[in-house]
Each structure stands twice: as C-alpha cells, then as structure tokens.
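pipeline stage [seq->struct] | target=Sodium:solute symporter family protein | organism=Halomarina halobia | residues=513
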Amino acid sequence: MVSFQATVALATIGVYLAVILAIGYRGWQVGKLDVDDWMAAGRGLGIVVLLFTFAASYHSAFAFLGIGGFVYGNGIGIFSASTFYLAISGIILWVVGSRVWLLGKKYGYITPSDLLADFYESPLLGKLVSLTLIVFTFPYIATQMIGSGIIFETATRGLVSFELGAAVFLLAGVVYVWLGGLRAVAWTDAVQGVFMFGAMWIAGWFFVFSAYRGPQDFWTELTREFAAYVSLPGPAGVITPEFYVSFAIMTGIGVMMTPHIFLRYVSARSPRVLKWVAAFGTAYLILFYVPTAFLGLGAVEAFPNLQQADSAIPAVLYRFTPTWFASIVVAGAVAAAMSTADSQLHAVSALITRDWYQPFAGDEVDERTVTRFAQVLVPILGAISYVIAIQQFDFIILLTAVTFYGAAQIFPILLGALYWPGASREGALGGFALGVLVTSALEFGLVTLPGGFPGFVSGFYGLIVNAVAFVGISLAVGGVSADARERTQGYIDYAVSRRWESAPSREPATEDD
C-alpha cells in the first residue's frame, strides 16, 4: 500500500513539474528559432527575470542536500564562507558582467570563447577555454540528477527509485530547454527561485518553532550540547583559515566563470540591469543559506548517527513538520537541482554549437540549422549525464570539486582582456593551461605538495600559477595588437565615458520584466 507521505510527495512534485513545463512551453511560443534568441534570450532579460534566473542557476542540489550534509559533518562555518564567496560573486557580476555585456552587445559574443579568442586573436585559446568549460561543467549536470534521485527516493520512501526519479527530472528539464532555450530556462528559473526561497524560509521557521520554542532556544540548546558545530574549524577540523579563505575565493570566482552564469551576462537588457541583479541577487543568495543552516544543524541533534549526511535536511523536515508541508519543501529541492541542471544543459549545448559546430560548418549554414543542432544536443547530453549519474561513480565527486576551480582559471585572462593593455596571447595560453594542469594534478592526487605548504584548495594554487605565468609571459613578449586593444578596451572606455550604460534608448521595454 502506498504511504500517505509518498502520495503527498508525488502529488506535490507532479503539480510542480506540470507548472514548470507549462511555463517552458510558453517560452517556446514567444521565442524565435535563431541563435541569439535560443542561446541569449534575445539579450532582453529584465531585472526580475534575470535576478531569479541568476540566483536559481547559482544554486544547485548542493543548496538543499550538499550544504545540509556539510553542516551536519563540519558545522556552521560553511555559512560564513558562503557569505564571503557570494559577496565576491556579486562584485564580479557588477564590475565584470557589465563590461562583458557591452562587448557582447557590440560584437555578438555569447560564450567566453567568443570574447577571449577575439581579443587574444587566438582560435586555439578559444578552443582550449571551451573544452575546459565543457569538461568541468558536464559532470556537474550528473550531480544534479543524483541529487534529484535522492530527493525522489527519500520523499516517497523508496516508492520511486533513485533511477526513476532522476529520469523524471531529466525528461522535464530536457523538454523545456529544447523548446525555449534560455528564455524558457529563465522563465522557469524565476518561478523556481521564488518557490525554493519561500519554501526554505518557511521550513526553517516552522522547524525552530515546532521542535523548539524559537531561534533563541534552538541556539542555546545547540551551543550547550554541540559547541564544536558553531565554531571554527568545526568538529572535524576541516574549516581551517587556509581552507576557508581559498575555498571562498575560488568558489566566488569559479561560479561566475561557469558558462551557464556567463550567459546571464550577455542576456541582460542593459548593464544597469546587471548591476541591480548583482545587488539584489547577492542578498537573495545570502539570505537563502540562513534556513538551510538551521535545518542542517537541527539534524545534528535529532539524528546524531545519520548514515547519509546529504539527507540531513529532508530527515529533519519529515520528522518535525507535517508530511504535506515537508513534501512541498522537497519540491523546492527539486527546483534547486533543476534550475541548475537546465542552465548547464543549455550552456554546454551552446558551447559545443557556438565554439565547435559553427566554425566547422562555416558561413553557409543558416541560423535555423545552427539552433536545431543546439536543440538536438540537449537530449543527447542529458542522456549521457543520466548514464553517469545512475552509475554513481566515485570520480564524479572529484570532478564536481574542480568544476569551480577549473572555471576560475578563466578569470585572470578575462580581466586581462577587459583591463590590461599589456595582456598577450602567449601569456593567456601559458597561464590558463598551467592553471588548469596544476589544479587538476593537485585535486586528483597526481602531485602532492610538501608538508610546509598552506592547506589551500587545489584551484587556489592553480590560480596563483596561472596569474604569475600570464603576467610574466605577457611582460616578456608584449601585449596583443593595437587593433585588438582598441576593439575591446578602447570600446569599453568609450562606452563608459559616453554614459552608454544609463542611456534610456539602450533599454527598450521587453516582456521579460
């Protein structure tokens, strides 16, 4: 007999998926079958939609399962670290994002490879950046499916298996990404972003007043019985100063260099929209982590011997809140996973199409054919990710750990393209390649640092080597051509000096507000 919990969970998640598919279908109806529309939503997303698609894409299954598991094992230190890296991300969106938008609007850039290959006059660098992003981003899609499979299995008490839950999640995401591209993704993310924020805050509030008499009693009890969980370096001694600082820096930079976030830079209606999103999006993301920290810490006291740490938050919800309510919040967890996976499926498809298929096909291929190719890639990429996810290979965790670290290696050469007249092609190629190699070698244990080195995360060492090599080689060989500098940095200086960012004529009204 089907349990009440399973029935409520299936009904809630089913209604949620139906609503999301309907919104995705509407995005397809108003869209156009061309590259700019499918990949960048016609570069017309307004503040509201862009805010929530940025925030929802920034989150992932980690926001519901991973952070709860990390808090359960290592304490609340991840919350302060998340505030640090979210502030870094907000600054990057404000400062770097607006300049990327200016260049994208002027020259039609969509992917990071478009901009970097053009400025450094190096198709090889563009291909290397694109390949790195594909390799480091693709496994992260599989982790979203793993998260959704766990959610389905937990919420239905095994009625829906891990494999079936992941498949349902994949099918829904593939359908609306195929149909509407970034516009459908952004519109569904707007709903998912509101839904999961509200669900988590209500859940956190419900928990502290049902299990305790409020936040003060909860905190008093926790600090008395589990003091190590509310101080650094945490009960397992993991969150050392070196780890804390390097993890925050690499995550804050790395997320903003991933392709699904980079596409948000060029899809905005104007740089001013991006700056509003940087301010409000950062606040949204910081506030989101408050209730997840409470729920994760609640599991420490309620379930001291929990076998699967990632199930900490669902376990607390189903223990201390009504079944119907816990199921609604679990649907919010599905939203967290789906809003990242759909963006990543779309982004990887855009990278392969824009950076590899279009140059190979040549100028004779029309935009409709290019867009169709990108659409066809979506279910193919989804199927490959699903096969990886249901195997639950151990190396997925390692690849996920270096997703942000690998993407962050773009940051020095992107800053060079936007700001530094002395940036060179040779420096960019050497620095980026060395940064990726050092990060991968350290993360996968191919190289071990001597004991005297600080305990920074692997990507931080990679970023240091990257920056030093980039600057050193560039100083030795000289910068890119004057034409490249004028086309990029000269145009940014001109646009900013003319106050183009605030010109009303550049901000026509759109329906994506």
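stage status: PASS
auto-comment: The chain is about 75% helix and 0% strand. The mean pLDDT is 87.
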